[in-house]
Amino acid sequence: MSADAWWKNGIVYQIYPRSFQDSDGDGIGDLRGIRNRLDHLIELGVDAVWISPIYPSPMADFGYDISDYCDIDLRFGTLADFDALAAEARARGLKLVLDFVPNHTSDQHPWFMESRASRSNPKRDWYLWRDPAPDGGPPNNWLSNFGGPAWTFDAHTGQYYCHSFLKEQPDLNWRNPEVREAMYDVLRFWLRRGVDGFRIDVLYHLVKDDQFRDNPPNPDFVAGGDPAHRLLPVYTTDRPEMQDIIIEMRRVVDEFSDPQSTRVLIGELYLPLARLMAYYGRTEDGLLQGVQLPFNFQLLAAKWQAAEIDHIVRNYEAALPQGAAPNWVLGNHDKPRIASRVGQERARLAAMLLLSLRGTPTLYYGDEIGLTDVPIPPEEVQDPFEKNDPGKGLGRDPQRTPMQWSGTAPNAGFTTGTPWLRLGGDWEHRNVESQAGDPASMLALYRRLIALRRREPALHEGSHEPLDAGADVMAYARSAGTRRLVVLLNFGTSEKPISIDLVPAGGVVLASTHAHRSGIVAGALILEPLEGVIVSRA
Ligand code: GLC
Ligand code: MG
User: Fold this and answer.
1) Cα(201) to centroid of ligand 1, in Å?
2) What is the pLDDT of residues 473-503, one digit of tens each?
3) Does pTM surpass 0.90?
4) Would you please indicate which residues are annotated as catalytic (active-site) residues?
5) Which terminus in the chain has less CB density within 10 A, N or C?
6) Range of the domain at 493
7) Same domain? 100 vs 118
8) Ligand 1 pocket check: which of 52, 202, 362, 394 to mutate, most ligand atoms within 8 Å of Cβ?
9) Could you report the per-residue pLDDT of 119-131, keeping only the tens digit for each?
10) Residues 52 and 198 reside in one and the same domain
């Protein structure tokens, strides 16, 4: 097995730690909780777990505002709990990926407290400080992604500091070599503790224009939409300097790669396709030098139609640089859940798509049981994004609700206390325990598809060939050696006969989204409405 196999051919599972499993009754998920639930991940069949931030944090943005990069927040546990989790994960063959948040610290981080203490403090230049505009207002028009200006005035020193997110999340100055070294040492700290890689938060934001030029208006902005989209982030994201930074980061993780297993970087990048590709990095000696997996988020926004998705997949495959590893994502803690976006039936088709495409799939916890967005009443809202601009549907609480484990234990087995966010109203029937025993369940489908992907090289490392199967049906072949599997996904709500050129009689159905389909294809294959199948030649 190649050293890259685990992240190239494997499956990543994202845990939002506040909501996975609480072990101490405080209503907040924690590291011991995760450790107690490793069985679920093993039975599911995933290869790696990515855990959203677990570091000490004032929790203004639920852990994405970090006050110490090299410790564990007490709500989640201790470094000893972390080591125990890491050891057990390793013993069970699971890789561990942590969240790395380099763009900003918490305003409570000692670095920022020093930086704001005086204009002459040695850490002053670790953050982005600017004089007010002549009228006393912010230095330029940059906007925070969470509403309002990206600048907050600090009366003590008479300057503004830059924050791409909350004012409690001041942006680090990535042009400063000391900042870079300090942050690379953070990576080394966790790599030494045995971590297998990092998901890098808002990677495309790290460097800002050195002349602090105004961002231009966005001609496509629709009134009433997310106010941060009023301007095009030309001078605040995806700056040319990023290309050297990703190479530096990659060198740091490569220091810790060994012949059995490489360390991986996964980049959070909401960028147009061509720009996304740039984050694989430059090629030297025939090898890409950047981030191994620049997150491909196209399915998160796609219209759920065969033609649209087919188009996305073909374009993505065509755009990949030589030697680049593809990847696909259906959900994360920032976006509405797939089961709510497309409904439960289509979410089954989505599962088959995700788990049969070429490229590393990332699953979001709960999607394997068809968890939906949970409406959160205004008085229970937690997410600052929603609090800053209520009623626009910007809030991310609905997709962060507790995992539903059991239909009989209090709070679905998530906590014995009061959960930090309410559970879905459906937990008594939608939970891991009840779905585990039901072959028609979403969980059973996920387990079957993952098992199939693991045992079929055609699926986990084979080539991809788009096929034409008529309107509403997306089709492709996955092949390795002489083995060729055909995937057919009927996005339509009527039956679809499939040409015998695509699936000859005698083909074997290896998986279907519909529990009752099985066995050999006799005559022509007719897909049921919203059915997906994976078929092998006889
Ligand atoms: C990323 C995270 C999001 C967070 C933001 C600021 O987009 O995924 O949850 O709020 O960065 O750190
Ligand atoms: Mg807890």
Assistant:
1) 6
2) 999 999 999 999 999 999 999 999 999 999 9
3) yes
4) 201, 255
5) N
6) 463-536
7) no
8) 202
9) 999 999 999 999 9
10) yes
